[in-house]
From TrEMBL:
InterPro entries: Crtac1 (IPR027039), FG-GAP (IPR013517), Integrin_alpha_N (IPR028994), UnbV_ASPIC (IPR011519). Residues 563-629 form the ASPIC/UnbV domain. Keywords: Signal. This is ASPIC/UnbV domain-containing protein. The keyword Transcription regulation does not apply.
Amino acid sequence: MIKIIIMALLTLTCTSALSDVVFNDIAAEKSAGINYGRVASSIDSLLIIYKQDLVTVMDMGDMPTRAHGAPGTALFDYDGDGDLDIYVSNGPKAANSLFTNQLSDSGKLRFIDKGEFSGTAATDQDSTGVCFGDIDNDGDQDLYVLGRSEPNRLFENQGDGRFKNISKTSQTNTHSRSSTACAMGDVNGNGLLDIVVANAFDYTNRHAMVKVAFDLNEHSVLLLNQGGNIFKDVSETSGLQTLAGLPDYGKGGATISWAVALLDYDLDGDADIIFGDEQGFFSPASMGGLDRGYIRIFNNNGKGQFKDVTIEAGTNKYGSWMGIAFGDLNCDGHIDIFGANVGDHILSNMTTFFQPGVLLSRWFLGSAAGTFTDPGIGKLVSTPFGYGAGIADYDNDGDPDIIFHGGLDTGLYKDSSNPGTILKNDNCSANFSLDEVALANSTNHARRNVQGMALGDVNNDGFIDIISVSNFDVPEFIKVEQYPAKTGSPFDKYAKFVPIFYPVDGSKKFADKTGEFEWTGYRFDNGSLSVETSSADNGNAWIKVKTLGTVGLLEKGKVNRDGIGAVIFFTPEKGKLRVQPVLGGASHASQDELEQNFGMARFNTATIEILWPGGTRNRLYDVKKSERLLFPEIPCGFNLSWSTQKDYEACVADSINKLVESGRLKKNVAERFRKSALRAFKESSDL
């Protein structure tokens, strides 16, 4: 009997320790210092005429889109004090916010908005997406802020808490397009971060979504870093404007791109470009129409020249790909892709040619050949609408999970199908289930029209937190209604919408093309910023890895200071290998923190290997749980060709000694890197 009681107590203890983590939105607490409200764009005034008269479904194409704005967010330590700060964009006549984290100064997680003080407020811009990186390799991160139908802005970090607007001198403000998202990476291997910008169309109407397939779309842009904080537009000569799979009348045209990332998806040592594109309301090619909305992959030849390999890669599945994220979902050592899409429920209010299941958010599993397969979404059956997306091990149990938020103003109604989605991975199988507990007591995201989302550890507890921004919120007094679709998915009960215009006949039939609609009179609140921190209480271990490129620090160093573009291979003792790229922007209009957080479950040590841009590989053994590791590029890869082992050892010793002399590495850590380098060389030679 005593044994039974003891076993029961042990079982309860273990169950408690392994319970799922939950999230709490600290932005709702006044003490957090988060005071943010996204104001509407100027085109919001164009909706007045429609609100004063009856409209039909056909009028939707003439309405402005994203009239409340398209904000993004980024997590970076701009002041170098060891904690993450939050940048979030805003609309015209409202300052963008730079919420400076006070954790390292006070020991408390609270923020002070230094947007105006820092010089990054951009009050006269209708700001959209953001990305960051150390463009001049001076040790601090610079900021690129996009605008709607106006020039983008580049802010150089001065290292003293302030930024300088160098948009004009850097030649990064030469276009006035509707830019949605950006990413940084080194496309030509010169150790300098370049910038790619995803563009869409003029938001004053929706013709590019419903009437004109290509002519109204705006080409995306590639800006090549020339050094000295000067960039050159190489969009036309780089191959970025040569798109595969378009009909003849679309050749030379552009697509609508909502998301973009620069990463080495095929693990060959160079930065490729991946876009999330929009199909819109054009019937697919299988029905006599056209396919344009792909997860579009441009493969780098190693010299900054790109070829669209979307069809060969297998990601040519049409959709409205709003956000993209990357990680190793099945733990096989290859990079996989998650794409946020519109889902089934939002379409059930419309008359549409899209079949159920076609426009679901889904993941594509990578292979050694650089191709991808779609395994389907399994028992989830269906998915809600998504914009911001991320792949991270939110519960630190040792496998990557999927997180995505999103809401959409369709014109006639606001989609509220996504209450905040966390898909839990089943033991690195890439089979997912919906975690309905993690966000249950946090903010009701169904009432937020979420756009941008970023992941990072804002309170330094070893568990990732979720930051998201909406362009408007629905007040509590407004009724949220149920979508008609019943898919058998766990998402069905959350699948709701808010009418903006309502059928005059009271039928609730939004799909009737001939029916008339009148404005409900609903007025929405300004958008909000959500900072959801993890409870971090399940006892699972973690390791953090921050990459350091050594161009300018070591004679043979080739990698940008942030190590953006590196790919980290993480293997816990007796655990499964995971691969994670260091990204200079992804999700939707947003950027996660650069330091990578790896969950370890109950393992104690791990081996970490990094594939650096250019192809060099370094490895470190016996990394301990709870360690925050600075991993520098040692430009003496164990995978490279060496005349003798002594040459390799001399290169390693010289590089590590210089990193110690410069204060980048402590002596005890340096010795670990030296021993690991020798061991890695021996093990690779024995293969």
